[in-house]
Amino acid sequence: MNELVVQTAGLTKRHGSRLAVDRVDLTVRRGEVYGFLGPNGAGKTTTLRMLLGLIRPTSGTATVLGGAAGSPAVMERIGALVEGPGFMPYLSGRDNLRVLARYRELPEVVVDEALERVDLAARGGDAFRAYSLGMKQRLGVAAALLGDPELIVLDEPTNGLDPAGMASMRSLVVDLARGGQTVLLSSHLLGEVQEICHRVGVISEGRLLRESTVAELLGTPRLRVHAEPVSEALGVARRFAEDVVVEHGELLVALAPELAPALVRELVAHDVDVHSVRHGDRSLEDVFFEMTTGGAVAQKETVS
Ligand SMILES: Nc1ncnc2c1ncn2[C@@H]1O[C@H](COP(=O)(O)OP(=O)(O)OP(=O)(O)O)[C@@H](O)[C@H]1O
Prior knowledge:
Elements: E1 4-15, E2 18-24, E3 27-29, E4 33-37, H1 44-51, E5 59-64, E6 67-68, H2 72-75, E7 78-81, H3 93-103, H4 109-117, H5 133-145, E8 151-155, H6 163-178, E9 182-187, H7 190-196, E10 199-204, E11 207-213, H8 214-218, E12 223-228, H9 230-240, E13 244-247, E14 250-253, H10 260-269, E15 273-279, H11 284-293
Parallel strand pairs: 4-9, 4-10, 7-8, 8-9
Antiparallel strand pairs: 1-2, 1-3, 1-5, 5-6, 10-11, 12-14, 12-15, 13-14
Helix pairs in contact: 3-4, 4-5
The chain binds adenosine-5'-triphosphate (ATP).
């Protein structure tokens, strides 16, 4: 599981005076779904294109499946949906895949296998132009799956899809990883990354700000406690956890949920009225906002 499928060192791409990707060191491990997460213009597509050898880095290196990014021997083992796939509108989905399979000298059987995996077998005979956006995206993934690649690179695979299309794309990605394939996908959707990725790399303005598991990124779970008087509650809570803040009149306590009953007992023993205790986990969105703006998650009040 710890074998590195992708490793970059100081990967940099400059367009004129603009640094699109700035000294990125990222690692993707075999068998994982890696989420490359960042706002529009952060440098995700540029990085993926360098990993696929579609553009050359200005400096730095990228090793993919043990070889140089973009080398023919490596590309044979990668499937990618990075630029919109160039399908022929009047050919059926199946015939479009047949063309690709023939070009790559793959046996015909891989076409139906790929259609099956993306749940398009029943509509494989329909013309590409008659496909919904979701079906077009799925066909793009099917094209990436031809030849059973070890690494699948998907640039914003759910972009433009409706909620049902997004859900089906997410479950497809999860299935691919279950089948042993490594998936590197980019996204600006935090919830999506939180739901399906094992590890994430957070990129903003060309810099990789952090690379870790989603759980590590979210940190210790928090309890959100509505209790009064707040100053008394704060004093009690600080005996349980170092990290306690007051937010919108409630305490946010960095404490495992199983310790909630003990905290409540102690609050009550100190004549504090406990109105509610909820899980107050930070979302990936909060963490992301903090990282990319360097600001606080929310307005914090100070209580003396
Ligand atoms: N060929 C190019 N010439 C000049 N600037 C470019 C070129 N390609 C990308 N850029 C710039 O590099 C930066 C990173 O772009 P990139 O497409 O990699 O971002 P992204 O994270 O994929 O964003 P999006 O989600 O919008 O696709 C942007 O500021 C973009 O305008």
